[in-house]
Amino acid sequence: MVKEHRITPILDHYTCMIDLFSRSGHLVEAKDFIQKMPCTPDAIGWATLLSSCRTRCNMEIGKWAAESLLELDPENPASYVLLTSMYAAKEDWAEVAQLRRAMRDRGVRKEPGCSWIKYKNRVHIFSADDRSSPFQIKYMQNWRN
Fold this sequence. Notes:
The protein has 145 residues and is mostly helical. It folds into two domains: 2-106, Tetratricopeptide repeat domain (Serine Threonine Protein Phosphatase 5, Tetratricopeptide repeat, Alpha Horseshoe), CATH 1.25.40.10; 114-144, no CATH class. Helices cover 63% and strands 8% of the residues. It has helices at residues 2-5, 11-23, 27-36, 43-56, 59-72, 77-89, 93-106, 136-144, and strands spanning 114-119, 122-127. A two-stranded antiparallel ribbon has the order 1-2. α2 packs antiparallel against α3, α4 (43-56) runs antiparallel to α5 (59-72) and α5 packs antiparallel against α6 (77-89). The longest helix is centred in the middle third of the chain and has 14 residues, at 43-56. The chain is extended, with a radius of gyration of 20 Å. The mean pLDDT is 88.
């Protein structure tokens, strides 16, 4: 890249390569690439690899990526959620429980997702655990029908 195009690669270029290797299922190559990089991946690079490890059920590289990601960003719930879902897919409930305890001990919480619906020309926002809306029961009844 430097010789042919006179472009010095920056972290974004390396992250793109991690993404390309990971999405195409070449997780070992992605790991080798990371180990040979002249810089350390940021949270985006590690999360990219971890997400693909979840999709491809690669626990070994997934654990390595998760540990690196948690070192960089221990407050990010997405790291815990991805790793927990990997263990759950393997039915390793002891590891799932351990990760959930670690989240609780560190005060890390996953914010629930929310839904936006238009009902009678008004937009309403709610989440699955939201009981504050007086119309929620009505919404759910109408939605189920």
